[in-house]
Structure formats: structure tokens, C-alpha cells
């Protein structure tokens, strides 16, 4: 198992190349790593690329810990992996799925989650300081069912977090008015969730776009949902996949510098699918 890197030039993808596998992670972190996964890649305000990923030394993903690599030349070369020391329990239990929000001071806030024994979600505030980083963990939830948070910032200290619901039923959400230090109680949204990962990003002053499995029971549907009131109410804008017995999972959303929206997701456990669209196309099908 390895984490691969490919680049997109606006027309096609390059051939993927291995960026890190368990052997390289073991050498770089001086740990006996069993497997690596859950990569999250993003660009900070200084145009550095960051890769945050999970590694497991024993057991399953609930015993994962987080590592990072940085590139200063748009992915051509990378620093050695560094371990994020987030827990006194052999630094185990934290994992990652969705990307961060970038702050004006050059730092960023990455949503993470804890799976061993007690399940909970948290924010990892990372401050690059020269060649080193400092970081702080702030818990979002204390309830077991809410994991894999996706974070939206409205730019005024107000945040929206949406969560995978391990109990199934509906997508869960919480809000903060002070930059993430205090959070509201979890509430269900009018969006189903079959215990599956989702992603959400801000695309307008009060508008958030979510990619999710629009089903309470399985991942055979992948849809795009839009909220124009900061996440209070939602409408399904597009159904991208719908095939009984198949799986479309772990969507990830991003907006490029030209305003195009990019979505990648696991396609039928055979490939990774990449979809590019704009907001006009998204809204054409809204009821």
C-alpha cells in the first residue's frame, strides 16, 4: 500500500508516482510502520504543498497516527515525513479525511478525528514557524457517532462543521461563533448519511456545497447538495452516480484559482473519478 501523487494540467492527469509507502515512512519516522493511507494534500497561503497522512504501526485505522510532508516546489521534491505528536498514548488514535481552512496569519486549521475507544472530532491548528511547526488540538464534539468532520469558514469567526454519522440516519452538524473554541450541540441535517464520509466547501457568501451519499442505507448514490443559508437548509442539485450494488465513496471537493470546482471520489472500488464543473452547471438543475 502506498500514497501516490499525480498532477492535472487542465486536460489530463500524469501517471501516478509513489510519494510515500510504509517502508519510506518507517525510515523517515524511525517507526515500524504497517501501512499508510488517508492522504490529504493542500496548498497553504505561502504556496507550499502539504501532505498530511495516516500511518499504522499495529492494529487497524483506529490506531493510526498523523504525519506530514511539505513541498516548496509544487510537488517536485518533499521534505522527509515528520510525526505529529498529538496523543500521550503512543501517539495513536488520530486520523484525517478532509482538508483545512487557511487563516490570514499563514496558519491553518485541519479537521481530524479520534477512533480508538471513545470517538470524537477535533481541530488541529498548525502554525508553520520556519522549518518547524507548532500545533494545538481543540476538541469539537464529545459524542461517539460524529467523525470525519468537514470544515467551512464564513470569514468572521463563524464556522460550520459537518460530520459522518457512524450511527447512520442523517448528516450531523455543529457551529461555532468564535473561531472554533466553543461549539454548538450536534444537530442532524435534512441530508441522509449511511455511515459514510462526505465533504463540504464554501462557494459563496452564504453558500456551501456538499458531496455525499444521498441515501440512509448504502453508498450506491453520490450527489451534490447546496445550501444558500449557511447550512440551515439543503437542496440536492445533481445526482452524479446511481447504481444499485455499486459504491461511490469518500468524496473530496476543492475550488481552483479560476473558480472551477473539482470533485474526486472512489468509483466502484475500481478507480478514482475526477469531475470538474462550475456553479452555473450546478445550479441549472436546482428545484
In short:
This protein has 287 residues and is mainly β. 5% of the residues lie in helices and 49% in strands. A hairpin with a 5-residue loop joins strand 20 and strand 21.
Describe this structure in words.
The chain has 287 residues and is mainly beta. It has a domain at 150-287: Neuraminidase (6 Propeller). 5% of the residues lie in helices and 49% in strands. The protein is built from two helices and 22 strands. Strands 7, 8, 9, 10 and 11 form a five-stranded antiparallel beta sheet that branches. It has a four-stranded antiparallel beta sheet with strand order 3-4-5-6, covered by helices on one side. Strands 12-13-14-15 form a four-stranded antiparallel beta sheet, with no helix packed on it. β4 (49-56) and β5 form a beta hairpin. The longest helix is centred in the N-terminal third of the chain and has 8 residues, at 22-29. The model has no long low-confidence stretch (mean pLDDT 94).
Q: CATH architecture of one domain, please?
A: 6 Propeller
Helix coverage percent: under 10%
CATH class of one domain: Mainly Beta
Q: Judging from the principal axes of the Cα atoms, what is the shape?
A: globular
Radius of gyration: 18 Å
Main sheet attributes: strand count, strand direction, barrel closure: 5 strands, antiparallel
What fraction of residues sit in β-strands?
over 45%
User: Helix and strand string, N-terminal first?
Assistant: EEHEEEEEEEEEEEEEEEEEEEEH
Keywords:
single chain; 287 residues; mainly beta; Neuraminidase; 5-stranded antiparallel β-sheet; 4-stranded antiparallel β-sheet; 2 helices
Amino acid at each position: 500500500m502506498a500514497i501516490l501523487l499525480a498532477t492535472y494540467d487542465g486536460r489530463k492527469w500524469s501517471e501516478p508516482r509513489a510519494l510515500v509507502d510504509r517502508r519510506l515512512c518507517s525510515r523517515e519516522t524511525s517507526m515500524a510502520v504497517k501501512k499508510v493511507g488517508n492522504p490529504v494534500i493542500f496548498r497553504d497561503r505561502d504556496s507550499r504543498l502539504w501532505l498530511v497522512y495516516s500511518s499504522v504501526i499495529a492494529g487497524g485505522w483506529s490506531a493510526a497516527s498523523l504525519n506530514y510532508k511539505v513541498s516548496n516546489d509544487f510537488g517536485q521534491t518533499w521534505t522527509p515525513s515528520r510525526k505529529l505528536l498529538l496523543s500521550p498514548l503512543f501517539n495513536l488514535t488520530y486520523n484525517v479525511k478532509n482538508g483545512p481552512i487557511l487563516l490570514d496569519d499563514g496558519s491553518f486549521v485541519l479537521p481530524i478525528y479520534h477512533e480508538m475507544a471513545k470517538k470524537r472530532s477535533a481541530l488541529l491548528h498548525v502554525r508553520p514557524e520556519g522549518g518547524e511547526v507548532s500545533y494545538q488540538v481543540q476538541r469539537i464534539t464529545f459524542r461517539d457517532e460524529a467523525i470525519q468532520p468537514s470544515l467551512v469558514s464564513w470569514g468572521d469567526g463563524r464556522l460550520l462543521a459537518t460530520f459522518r454519522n457512524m450511527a447512520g440516519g442523517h448528516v450531523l452538524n455543529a457551529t461555532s461563533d468564535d473561531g472554533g473554541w466553543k461549539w454548538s450541540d450536534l444537530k442532524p441535517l435534512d441530508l441522509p448519511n449511511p455511515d459514510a464520509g462526505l465533504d463540504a466547501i464554501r462557494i459563496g457568501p452564504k453558500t456551501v456545497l456538499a458531496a455525499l451519499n444521498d441515501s440512509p442505507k448504502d453508498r450506491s448514490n453520490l450527489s451534490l447538495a447546496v445550501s444558500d443559508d449557511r447550512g440551515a437548509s439543503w437542496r440536492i442539485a445533481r445526482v452524479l452516480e446511481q447504481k444499485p450494488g455499486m459504491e461511490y465513496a469518500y468524496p473530496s471537493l476543492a475550488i481552483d484559482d479560476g473558480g472551477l470546482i473539482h470533485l474526486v471520489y472512489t468509483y466502484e472500488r475500481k478507480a478514482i473519478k475526477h469531475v470538474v464543473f462550475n456553479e452555473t452547471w450546478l445550479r441549472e438543475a436546482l428545484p
